[in-house]
Request: fold
Amino acid sequence: MTIAVLPGSFDPVTVGHIDIATRAATLFEHVIVAVAHNSAKTPLLDGETRLALASAALEPLTNVTVEATSGLLVDFCRDRGATVIVKGLRGGADYDYERPMALMNRSLTGIETVFVTGDPALAHVASSLVRDVARHGGDISPYVPDAVVAAVAEATHRAR
Ligand code: PNS
Reply:
């Protein structure tokens, strides 16, 4: 059985993430969505909330599970018996961002990263833009599951 890990900050989970997880679920027997900490970012939502929202959003995908992880991604992959990391690409900028991580992860343990191209209709959907739209009072409901709207509004209000 090929187990793939789909890691990210999921701050918050978006319809773009759901699209990638859905595609990954058709390629691998089991996909573990790993809600991780990116040391280059200060998240809007705490880890528990990011995990809960991603778990609820991906619950309909029967071969996808969602877990929190801290520490090195490659260690998490080894512990779970995962032989592949899967990432979504919206375009060239994503590839430029992802390539060094894919190379570093391969250098660390030999694990390969497989890139899945997302739905072009969702190419503008990014957690960072969702947070920015929310911060400025815009409607984020087209870009995230319903439960995320209230959680982001609350966290945005608290951060003011
Ligand atoms: O959604 P993001 O913020 O682009 O995801 C980046 C993430 C969390 C996948 C990356 O920062 C990561 O893998 N963090 C775990 C720590 C780690 O393994 N760092 C080395 C990566 S080469």
About this structure: DSSP finds six helices and five strands in the chain. The mean pLDDT is 97. Residues 56 and 146 are 10 Å apart (CA to CA). Strands lie at 3-8, 30-35, 64-68, 84-89, 112-117.
